[in-house]
Structure formats: C-alpha cells, structure tokens
Amino acid sequence: MTSEFQRLCIIGLGYVGLPTAAIFAGKGLDVLGVDIRPEVVDLINQGKIHIVEPELDQLVHDAVAGGRLRATAQPEEADAFIIAVPTPFTDDHKPDLSYLMAAAESLVGVLKKGDLIVVESTVPVGATESLSVRLASLCSGLSFPHDAGNDADISIAHSPERVLPGKVIKELTKNDRVIGGLSPRCGERAAELYALAVEGKCLLTTAPTAELVKLSENAFRDVNIAFANELSVICDKLGINVWEAVELANHHPRVNILQPGPGVGGHCIAVDPWFIVDSAPNDTPLIQAARRVNDAKPHHLAGRVKEAAKDMTDPVIACLGLAYKADIDDLRESPAVTITVDLAKTGNARVLAVEPHIATLPPQLQDAGAVLASLDEALAEADIVVLLVDHQAFKDIDRTRLKDKRVFDARGIWR
Ligand code: SAJ
C-alpha cells in the first residue's frame, strides 16, 4: 500500500530540519526544504551543506542528485509539513516564538484539506495549540484540530526532535519519538509519517504532554549537571579533586552524578528549562536554581584563573577550546566563549584562544582582545593553560608540555 504522504515540505534547514529532509528523501519521498537564508538554499541545491554533521554531506548530495530534495525560500503544496525553526528566548528568558509563527503563517495559501503539520521545534506548553488557533484565524474555509478535533481538515501534532549534535543521523532514525496530537487522529497521522523513516517507537500522547516531555528531558539534564557543577565549586574550596570524588561516588549502584564542567552551553539545555519556568514561575525553584548554578560556573572558573594570574608579570593565558562541547564547531551559548571573553577583557594578560574547528575568531572574542592561536603556539607561550573543551586533540597532548605551567582543567581530562 502506498503512503498518503508522498510530498513533504520541511521548514527550517538547520541542525534538525536538513538531516530530517535528507532522511525522508532517502526513503523515497519528494522533499522540499524551505529556508529564509538564500545562501543556505543555494548551497543545498548544489548538493552541499552549511553545517558540520557526520554523514550528512553524502546524504544531502545523494538526495539532491537523485532529484528527491530541493530547497527554496517559500513553502509549496505538500501532503505534510514539518516545522523545524529556532525557538530561542528573549533577554528576559521568555520564549521567542516569532520564527515558529512566521513559519506557520508562510503556510497560508498553501494548506489544503487533508494536510498534516508537525512542529518539531522545541516549544513551551500550549504553543502547538496557539499555532492551530493562529492558522485558523488566517485560513477561512479550513477547520483546525484545536476546534474540530478528529474531524478537522488539517491535522497538527508536536513531535520534538531529540537528537544529539554529532550523532544526528543515527539518532533521527533510531531514537523513539514522542508524538502529541492536537486530536488522537492528528497523532496517529504524524506517527504514520514518521514510520516511513524512523526505526524507533512512535509513542502517542497529547500535544501539551509532548511539549512538556521534551522540556523536561533537557531540564532534567540541566538540574543534574548543576548538581555536579555545585559539587565542583565545593571541591575547589575544600581542595578535593571533584572528578575523583564523582568517580568514586558513582561506584554506588544507585548513584550516577554527571560530569562537572565550565558551565552548560548549546541551544537546548541552557534554553529549554526557561520555557518551563515561564509557564510556572512560582513553582520552579529547583529548575531556576539549576539555571543559576550553571550560568555562574563560567564566572567561578574565570575568577580562579584571574586570581592565579594576578601576581604574574605580563602573563599569557591559553584557553583551549571555544565550542560548547567536544569535537563540534558549535559555539552557541558556549561557556568556553564566556570565560575566554572574561579573561581577555580583564586586560592584564594576553589571551590565546585555541579552537581547531574554526578558522576565524568571532567578533565578540576579537573585540575583547583574544587572539586565535594554534595549539602548538599556545602551549609554547602560555604561563597558564585553561582547558575548556574536551576535544580529542587536547586529550592527546603530551603532558610534559604542561610542566611548569599553571593548569586549570575544567573537564577533568588530564587528571
Ligand atoms: N555537560 C556537562 N556535563 C555533563 C554533560 C553535559 O557539563 O555531564 C555540558 C556540555 O559540555 C554542554 C552542555 O552540557 O555544554 C550540553 O551538552 P549535551 O551533550 O548534554 O547536550 P546537547 O545540548 O548537545 O543536546 C541536548 C540533548 N538532550 C539531552 O541529552 C537531554 C539532545 O538529546 C537534545 O536533542 C538536544 O539537547 C536538543 O535539541 O534539545
């Protein structure tokens, strides 16, 4: 039996949308990718990609060459639409749904009876229903599921992406998916769509539950990382090696403390807990405290380094790593950037930033006075070495090169 979903339109060709588009195209669907950035559209139509993600370049190349994937600036008619656009927060930690709503509005005039819309972007509880309400106000002649339930002309569901950057292709296919329909039929239709490409289970629930599940996953990580980070501050005070303490505690059969680090970065774990806080500001003391602990960690570390540099004459500080985690090029919300900027701005030291995955230093770091250096240059010149990211290249350093230097290892790799 052929599927009711032959044409798929994916809005947002970023870290999630592009791999999703390539995977569905690989399964034989006719996929149109939509992005507001003309340079991204051009590159994809040439079979090339704009992000670093293992296996993705070949998949996109094959899909474009096979005529199953095409990129454009505006949505066109399709059987199903997947929205995978950013949902950042504003300066006061409120969800910014402007990209999501703009994506939804771009479907006006394109939607027809029988279409399915899936929101993959991480959203606050209630956003999927708000999207349905908004579209209903703009599309007279079509009924929507917040109102018409199973009988609606348009089906809408939330199915949050849960993939780990660096392992996106494998996780998109293998991970179980939570699918929350605005009506039971919406959920079932979304599950039929994902079953074409996903090997993991499709777990059906309501849209608000699916929204909260995704936020809870990242808030759970944030709270647990905050515990490890708080422990590391205590250990610094007491002169105890936190990684040894964590490793020994984790020998307990029911204890699994996460790894302390320079802070929590990326566009997910440092962002999503705020969406829960926004929905329940007076009922989230733990989640808010975790955010504060993790956001304070870069300043704690920078403070310790500045203290060590205080009595040195013209010290050189090497900051190893700028990415938000190991072996990727993504600097978004990176605590390593915060620390390097802080140290460079202090002014009494020359700060050499080492990041093997980038070719030029972002303006924020240049303005602060940091200089991009190779690992060899930095190790040759530094009085103080601050390890911020556990990139493989840093794990392989010959430790004798760190002799006679003051070392701050924020990831515990040189223990
Ligand atoms: N970190 C620690 N200690 C740890 C683990 C992580 O300090 O023990 C730090 C990392 O260094 C990094 C940050 O936390 O700065 C987040 O890194 P991560 O690898 O834990 O997660 P992300 O942000 O790359 O991806 C997360 C994933 N969520 C969970 O693991 C619950 C992924 O599955 C989600 O799809 C993604 O967020 C997302 O898009 O929401």
What is the secondary structure topology, with strand pairs?
Elements: E1 7-11, H1 17-26, E2 30-34, H2 38-45, H3 56-65, E3 69-72, E4 80-83, H4 98-105, E5 116-119, H5 127-138, H6 145-148, E6 155-158, H7 168-174, E7 177-181, H8 184-195, E8 202-206, H9 207-238, H10 242-249, H11 272-279, H12 285-309, E9 316-320, H13 335-346, E10 350-354, H14 363-368, E11 371-372, H15 375-381, E12 384-387, H16 392-395, E13 406-409
Parallel strand pairs: 1-2, 1-4, 2-3, 4-5, 5-6, 7-8, 9-10, 9-12, 10-11, 12-13
Antiparallel strand pairs: 6-7
Helix pairs in contact: 1-3, 4-5, 9-11, 9-12, 12-13
The chain binds ligand SAJ.
What would your notes on this structure say?
With 415 residues, the chain is of the alpha/beta class. It contains 16 helices and 13 strands. The strands form two sheets. The protein has an eight-stranded mixed sheet, sandwiched between helices. A five-stranded parallel sheet has the order 11-10-9-12-13, sandwiched between helices. The longest helix is centred in the middle third of the chain and has 32 residues, at 207-238. The model has no long low-confidence stretch (mean pLDDT 96). Ligand SAJ binds next to helix 9.
